[in-house]
Inverse folding.
């Protein structure tokens, strides 16, 4: 196995347990806007995609634009709930420290915007573990499932793709890592996550951070 030089962590669903909060609010907001959406549908259709990509999908389905304040209102409610309720994924801080103790670089690469990523990591006490090495889909022309974000992260961190490992929890994220030529570990600890779909996309599936098969 090629020596690992970098571990790239997705944020939502990997570092922080944000998907239940965010997708319930998203489903409610879409339903109120005239696009009936259940929580399960929101999880299945939109997890792992950037908000810019999601907005295009929402408006295609609606056949027109959402109200002007719709996204700002959703983000304000989401951020408020994150600040009050968000927790880290069980065992992830310990995994980060194990990786760093082996002198392996770490960073975050997420479909969320930088404001959301920083809020999530600050609220859960994880921000300081990454030394400012945080990358957002807003920094690249194409979000996941395209490889652009992961390739940017590896380039900025000075590590080749073949020495980079991605930890993801969504099919678009796994697809992006595979397209970047990186090994991808697919976290399926959330009961709503489809581990079989992650495996079909090319991920090595695991169900608890303590069992992440990084060094096997």
């Amino acid at each position: 196995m090629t020596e690992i030089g970098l571990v790239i962590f997705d944020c939502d669903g990997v570092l922080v347990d944000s998907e239940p909060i965010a997708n319930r609010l998203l489903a409610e907001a879409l339903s109120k806007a005239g696009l009936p959406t259940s929580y399960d549908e929101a999880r299945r259709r939109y997890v792992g995609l950037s908000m810019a990509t999601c907005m295009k999908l929402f408006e295609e389905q609606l056949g027109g634009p959402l109200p002007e304040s719709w996204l700002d209102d959703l983000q304000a409610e989401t951020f408020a709930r994150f600040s009050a309720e968000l927790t880290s994924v069980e065992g992830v801080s310990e995994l980060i420290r194990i990786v760093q103790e082996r002198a392996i670089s770490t960073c975050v690469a997420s479909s969320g915007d930088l404001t959301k990523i920083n809020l999530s990591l600050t609220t859960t006490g994880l921000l300081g573990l990454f030394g400012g090495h945080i990358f957002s889909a807003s920094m690249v022309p194409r979000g996941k499932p395209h490889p652009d974000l992961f390739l940017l992260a590896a380039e900025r961190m000075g590590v080749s793709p073949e020495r980079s490992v991605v930890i993801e929890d969504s099919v678009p994220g796994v697809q992006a890592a595979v397209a970047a030529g990186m090994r991808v570990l697919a976290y399926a600890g959330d009961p709503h996550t489809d581990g079989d779909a992650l495996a079909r996309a090319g991920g090595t599936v695991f169900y608890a951070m303590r069992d992440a098969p990084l060094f096997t």
About this structure: The longest strand covers residues 105-110. The chain has two domains: 6-18+86-211, 19-85.
